[in-house]
Amino acid sequence: MSIYPVEDFKQYWPENPSNLKDAVENYARGLRNLSTTVLGLVAEGLGLHQNYFDGDLSGEPMASHINFYPPCPDPSLTLGLGKHCDPGLITLLLQGNVSGLQILHNDEWIAVDPVPDAIVVNYGHQMEIVSNGMLKGVNHRAITNAEQSRMSIATFIQPSKEGLIAPAEALHSEKNQPIYKRFHYREYFGNYVANLGDKEKSAEPFLVKCA
Ligand SMILES: O=C(O)CCC(=O)C(=O)O
Ligand SMILES: [Fe+2]
Fold it and tell me: Which residues form the Fe2OG dioxygenase domain (predicted)?
């Protein structure tokens, strides 16, 4: 569901339970502040201006996916959510207290176990592109377990669809050429959906090819 800007979406949220709208509003505002803080710190860490990710680069309305994974009698037979990389800049993930998230690192799936009240920050694919490959959009998936159901809420911070994406100028040079061309996020996103979240296939048309 779309959660931010609150004024644009509050009218569409369910009326029941009666405290839901206020709870979602608090959550949405809190997550927006958190995302601004995190993106400011990441920008600084990359040597960019603290406001680099403000505006179009994080301008898409914030949407939350509420994922519910029922217990699965034989988890070896199915995944809760298959391997993918989130498309945007960062994803803020609340994963409750049941394990299930795994990230792919050096061809190995590694569990990211929940920490009480903590929010996981995953880099999305646009972060990799804007940082010209310095940061990596993380491939991840969710597994099921036989005993407990699991719920997670993933909130996506993404560029506006008409926003222009390109490696930040300060992060490439004569020696360190840009890996990606400039493109509109809309073009990427269409490709992402068509390729079911596959990073390499989604970015293929936007790669700078060496002659
Ligand atoms: O359930 C999880 O931990 C992961 C959810 C996720 O990756 C997503 O909604 O994009
Ligand atoms: Fe994801």
Answer: 60-159
